[in-house]
Structure formats: C-alpha cells, structure tokens
Design goal:
Blueprint lengths: L1 H14 L2 E6 L20 E12 L2 E2 L6 H14 L5 E3 L7 E13 L1 H9 L6 E15 L4 E16 L12 H18 L4
Parallel strand pairs: 2-4, 2-5
Antiparallel strand pairs: 1-7, 2-3, 5-6, 6-7
Helix pairs in contact: 2-4
Length: 192
C-alpha cells in the first residue's frame, strides 16, 4: 500500500509541474496605430524573416514556426498602412526588409538541475530576451538603415505554478508589439 501511495505521489508531482511566463513590458505603446500616412507614395515590400537562438551565449539549433512568425510580421506591416503590397515570396519590390528575431535565453544551469532533481519543489527561473532587428534596403540592395527593439520574458518553474498556466500570455501579442514598435521607429527615421 505504501508503494502505491509513493508511486501515486511521484506521478502526481511529475504531472503537476507548472510554469509562469511574464513580460517586463519595457516597450512603449505605439501611438497612433496604424501609423500616420506618409507624404510619399506607398512602397511595395518584400519581407524575409529569420531567427537565431542562443542559450547562455552559445548558439543552439531550434525549430521555430517560421511560417507563423512570417504571418505575424506580415500582418503588422499590412496594418501599418504604409505599404501598397507586402510579400514573403521573393519578387521585385521597392523595399527589401530582413527581419531577424533573436531569442537569447539565459539561465542558471545548476538551479535548473536542482529544480528538476527536486521534482520542481525548488523553483527555477530563466529569462528570454527577444530582440527583433529589421534591416531596410532599397530596390537596388543599398542599405537604408536598421532598427532594433527588444523585450525580456521571465519564466518561473515550480510545482504549484500549474494553477498559473491559464493566465500565461501568448508570445504572439509580444511579437506583434515588437514589430509595431520597430515599424514606428522606422517611420520616424524615414525608412518607410
């Protein structure tokens, strides 16, 4: 009977592990949105989206959903009201924009091992700094300029944070805000 109770306790603790992620909210609100109309005619744009991932400064392979990220970025470009056409398929355009999303994860490996070894009774934490960089080039490939914004997410892992799971934010909203903030800065620098 004691073995059954111990087995049920271990199984419950393994299935009730939870985590909670929150943003540091350092990005200023983009006002107005959509962006104010420019005096020039609306250009066409080709967007190339790529990602980089590193853990404690070491580049690491990852399998992000590039199609989903492309759609989020493309939607923000479209919603900005500054472009006549946005494409993710390579074709002749007035602007070529390379969007690079860097996810720099920093964590204490010793604390992560301790958290796992205690079946999440000892809480652990790690940070993800999301840096979105946009490089703008004209139709001839000449560099026009670059803008970059970042936001940090902190994730806590603990046995009893299972109850926080329904309240975790979606990363989609943060990525949309990063894109909007970059576009606002690009507009202030007359890149778009």
């Amino acid at each position: 009977m004691k073995a059954l109770i111990a087995l049920l306790s271990i199984t419950a603790s393994l299935t009730l592990q939870g985590c909670m992620t929150y943003s540091h909210n350092t990005l200023p609100d983009v006002e107005p949105w959509p962006l104010a109309e420019s005096a020039q005619t609306k250009p066409t744009a080709y967007i190339k989206v790529q990602t980089e991932y590193s853990v404690n400064g070491t580049p690491t392979a990852s399998n992000p959903d590039i199609a989903k990220l492309e759609n989020l970025v493309k939607q923000s470009f479209t919603d900005s009201g500054r472009f006549s056409r946005i494409s993710t398929e390579q074709e002749a355009s007035d602007l070529y924009v390379t969007v690079t999303l860097r996810n720099q994860e920093t964590a204490n490996l010793g604390l992560a091992v301790l958290t796992g070894a205690t079946l999440f009774l000892v809480p652990g934490t790690f940070d993800n700094t999301l840096i979105m960089d946009m490089m703008f080039r004209d139709g001839g490939g000449k560099k026009l300029g670059r803008v970059q914004k970042q936001e940090t997410l902190t994730t806590w892992m603990h046995l009893f944070l299972i109850f926080a799971l329904p309240f975790n934010e979606s990363a989609d909203a943060l990525l949309t805000e990063l894109t909007k903030s970059n576009l606002e800065e690009a507009a202030s620098k007359d890149l778009i």
